[in-house]
Design brief:
Number of strands: 23
């Protein structure tokens, strides 16, 4: 709504390149949907309303600025001009025709958010053709994509191939009707990456509702690893604004950019909630829990599900994953089952309070980063079975064995951490690791059922397991 010239230029460009066509899957909209009593028109871009639904759940609502005051630029890159763009102009069809654009496509439209601009280091990096037209928008730019998709259908009977919403803006868009924001009716395929879905007073800028065909919630979709609300950094904003806003919100387009050429599969897993995902309740890819790669390659996987008739394009799939705190962000996921031994030795030793860390080692002796099963010390009792989802850096192969360490910290106010006569240790019966991405499973055990002693590495291998032999 606030950038009518961008929407108009996109519509004209698509019309020139494709020619008008009638789509059977174009969404039909009511003719008198808007309250047009309060409106302002900017020819040739159309009229903008301040009536319903543009005022619903919005504390204030303003007309867009005059187009001539916005200083909008449309740099266009093709295979023939990769470094120096051709600048298109609204209503200049001749310039579009002479811009070295191959009418066979594919075409990618990138729209930045409220505090960003065309100077951001975004590239499309040798993308292959998944669909002819793909609008990629960050923050407010996501909703601009929705407006373009809506206008294409209503005015020209065309349906945009794909819109990717990168942490679509929440302020003035959350809990509004679909006309006001991006939604899955705006394109044949709409995918969303949520990275900053928190209330605005907690420095959240992204929408939390699932609004696409598929919605990815990496790390729960609210605060990203390495980012803290109120103390965020790492993007090209002013220092003051950056401290309040940027890191998690910006992470959405960093994840998408990495997905163009990922270091690992970048899988998102369908689950009822992020908490259920972390608890290891959604670990098998299949009809109950679809697995779709996050980012650019998501459409191929979704299309396969669609062609198989197993997904309803009128409904939503919410997917969860974990990523790292720095580049490359991609991680692979393992469901972990760990059983605390119920042996005589373990019961005699008694319960322990501490933290278990594991490091995965593959067939080439490459080690993953070590991971704690829990961030805080946990009380482990003999016979307990712990189930978790962990994510580690991908080394290219599933693990062959595991290095386990017991982290023990004495707390004067917690008697369960007092070990005056016995060495701090834990007896582990076995650890079972099920890989989501590699679809493999191994079970490892300590040699000769020895305990894992604090601050000493214990190697666990499959051949050390004695049960079932």
């Amino acid at each position: 709504m606030h950038n009518g010239t961008s929407a108009t230029l996109m519509l004209q460009t698509i019309m020139v390149l494709m020619g008008k066509q009638n789509g059977t899957d174009v969404t039909k909209f009511p003719v008198a949907y808007n309250d047009m009593e309060l409106e302002r028109c900017y020819e040739p871009y159309g009229c903008f309303s301040k009536g319903y639904p543009w005022t619903e759940n919005r504390p204030d609502n303003y007309f867009p600025m005059p187009p001539e005051s916005m200083a909008i630029r449309y740099p266009t890159f093709t295979r023939r001009n990769r470094k120096v763009p051709v600048f298109l102009k609204a209503n200049n069809i001749e310039r579009i025709q002479k811009a070295n654009i191959d009418p066979r496509g594919p075409f990618y439209f990138i729209s930045h958010g409220f505090l960003e601009g065309g100077h951001k280091p975004w590239e499309t990096l040798g993308l292959s053709n998944v669909d002819n037209f793909h609008f990629i928008g960050h923050s407010l730019g996501s909703h601009l994509g929705g407006y373009c998709g809506h206008a294409l259908q209503k005015k020209f009977n065309l349906k945009l191939g794909r819109i990717t919403g990168l942490d679509p803006a929440a302020p003035h868009f959350s809990k509004t009707v679909t006309l006001v924001r991006l939604d899955r009716s705006d394109a044949k395929y709409v995918d969303i990456i949520h990275t900053n879905a928190l209330p605005l007073y907690m420095s959240g800028l992204g929408i939390s509702e699932p609004i696409g065909h598929v919605d990815f919630y990496p790390n729960g979709g609210s605060v990203q690893p390495g980012c803290k609300a109120g103390a965020q950094q790492g993007a090209d904003f002013s220092p003051t604004v950056m401290k309040i806003l940027g890191c998690s919100h910006v992470r959405s387009h960093e994840l998408f950019t990495e997905s163009l050429s990922p270091k690992c599969p970048f899988i998102g897993i369908q689950c009822e909630s992020y908490e259920a995902f972390l608890a290891g309740n959604c670990t098998t890819c299949g009809p109950k829990h679809y697995c779709i790669p996050m980012g650019y390659n998501s459409y191929s996987a979704y299309k396969q599900l669609q062609n198989a008739g197993v997904v309803d394009t009128n409904s939503n799939i919410a997917l969860y994953s974990m990523t790292g705190s720095d580049k490359p962000f991609c991680r692979v996921h393992y469901e972990i089952h760990m059983k605390v031994s119920n042996s005589t030795e373990s019961r005699t030793h008694g319960p322990e309070s501490g933290k278990v860390s594991i490091t995965l080692v593959d067939r080439n002796n490459n080690k993953s980063d070590f991971k704690f099963l829990d961030d805080e010390q946990k009380y482990y009792k003999p016979g307990n079975i712990e189930k978790r989802m962990l994510a580690v850096k991908d080394k290219g192969y599933p693990p062959q064995y595991v290095i386990v360490e017991w982290k023990y910290e004495t707390n004067l106010f917690n008697p369960m951490t007092w070990r005056l006569l016995k060495s701090p240790s834990i007896y582990i019966d076995y650890i079972k690791l099920s890989s989501i991405e590699y679809d493999t499973e191994i079970t490892v055990c300590p040699k000769l059922n020895k305990p894992v002693v604090a601050n000493l590495h214990t190697v666990m291998k499959t051949k050390y397991c004695t049960f079932g032999k």
